[in-house]
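Exercise 7. Given the encoded structure of a 124-residue chain, write a plausible sequence.
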């Protein structure tokens, strides 16, 4: 069992930055790939970014590529999502998730554990 807790969400103006954090407890953190997803009202949960076990490989949705950066610190059992150049369309609840396999890393169903989410609101 892995417990995930997100933090760092909030209200920010368009063009601004936020950093989300995900604290993990339970089973060995380094044994899981970590992903960030988001869900806007009335929309399906969508992939944002993922990072492999040691951080060697990262993956991003086209909509955030070049603006967001995913990271992890296995010594501290944390994952992060640095979000720069925020746009109105980035407004959503952001979730971190953990998966044993990186296969289908972009698919929410591939993830075994989820946090409760943190709200990110971008205003004009």
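Solution.
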């Amino acid at each position: 069992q892995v417990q995930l807790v997100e933090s760092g969400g909030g209200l920010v103006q368009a063009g601004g930055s936020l950093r989300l954090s995900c604290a993990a407890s339970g089973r060995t953190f380094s044994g899981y790939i970590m992903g960030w997803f988001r869900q806007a009202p009335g929309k399906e949960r969508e992939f944002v970014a993922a990072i492999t076990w040691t951080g060697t490989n990262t993956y991003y949705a086209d909509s955030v590529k070049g603006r967001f950066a995913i990271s992890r610190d296995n010594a501290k059992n944390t994952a992060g999502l640095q979000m720069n150049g925020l746009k109105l369309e980035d407004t959503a609840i952001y979730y971190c998730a953990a998966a044993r396999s990186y296969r289908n890393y972009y698919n929410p169903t591939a993830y075994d554990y989820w946090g409760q989410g943190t709200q990110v609101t971008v205003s004009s």
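Remark. The chain has no helices and eleven strands. Students should compare their own answers with the one above.
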